[in-house]
Each structure stands twice: as structure tokens, then as C-alpha cells.
Amino acid sequence: MVAMVKVKFLGHAAFYIEGSKKILIDPFLSGNPVAAAKPEELEADLILVTHAHGDHVGDAAEIARRTGAKIVAMYDIANYLVENNKGITTVGMNYGPTEIDGVKIVQVPAWHSSSDGKYSIGNACGYIIELDGVKIYHAGDTFVFKDMELFAELYGPIDLALLPIGGHFTMGVEEAAKAVELLKPKKVIPMHYNTWPPISADPEEFKRLVGDKAEVIILKPGEMIEL
């Protein structure tokens, strides 16, 4: 029997992926008004961070220190985290493919800034993860760009894409729908919307714009799908 990969939406851009490994992405939980979990409730083997903004780094260091999980991030961000947090292990990388503890990971570009609120740190990125034969793309914070078509060509077919739709800091619903055309994923979950008023968006409108190009799955924080 093939093991199922579970993907739980934790709110904002945070996701918990569980298969043969437990993977957290952008675990912004403390201070997140829509968070569906507390940092102390989660176990992890790997924690993937897309960029240095606080609503994405979130509780990564705290969870890594408690669980022994490795934090995977852009090289500069990984160094920044390990220098400022005792008792954690980081894996710094840059755009390209690697394998960490049996999980295939491709760090891909994202069009966005990356800072601790004062100083720029590294570059923003997304991740294409292959876990137990399932390919998941987490876009991080980004605008739509033509290279997404190359992601599909090199690393597809993508089983699930996690795409921001909130606008203001990232793609809005129209741009995200265009990203679906470029990426050609089988399924899409919208993220990074309705956490705060500036990123208010209607996921049903996104679903309407995507149409039959992919299956759009709208999750509330705490809800999960199996792949």
C-alpha cells in the first residue's frame, strides 16, 4: 500500500506536510491571528523557510530547538538564524536541487524582498518538495513570473501548488490564476490571504478564474487533504 502524504493548512503561509517525514513550511504561529496550531504542538524533521520576514520565519527556531528539526533556508538566512539562536541546526542552500534526509528539495526563485525588518537577508525563494513520490510546490511570497513555466518543465508534473492570492505583498487572485496556467499543477491550495485587511481576497473568485485548469481546494486553517 502506498503511504498517503497529508498536507495541513496552518494559516497564512504555514503548512504541515506529513508522510515518511514531517515537514513544516513557514511556521508563523505565535502572533498569527488565524493560526491553527501552537508551536509546542508540532513535531518536525525539516522546517523550510522561504524568506526572512517575521510572518514566514515565525517559530522556526523554537520548534527546531525542541524537536531537533533541521531548518532549511537560503544560505544567508540559515547563517543568520544559527548565529542568533542557540541549539538549532540549519542547512543553508541556494537556488537549485538537493536531497536532505531522503527528501528531494529544489529551492526556486521568488519575486519578493527578504529582511528581518531592518536589514536585507538573503533572497526570497519557493520550494518544490518531493516526498514519497508526491511533488508539492510552495511559492513563498511572490509575484507571478514566466520562470514558473520552467519549474513545470523541469520538475513537473506538480501534484499540488500552494500559491499566495492576497495581493498587496504578493500575487492577487488574477496573477495567481495565471501562475496556475504556467505551473500546470493537478491541485492548488490558495494561501497568504485574509490574515489581515491589506491581504483580503476571495478564494472563490480565484477558483472561478482557474476554472478547469486545476482542482482548487480551499482550506480553512486546520483543515487537511491527503495526496
Automatic annotation (TrEMBL):
Transmembrane segments: none annotated. This is UPF0173 metal-dependent hydrolase PYCH_05180. It holds the Pfam family Lactamase_B_3. Residues 11-192 form the Metallo-beta-lactamase domain. SMART domains: Lactamase_B (SM00849). Belongs to the UPF0173 family. Keywords: Hydrolase. One of its GO terms (molecular function) is hydrolase activity. It comes from the Archaea.
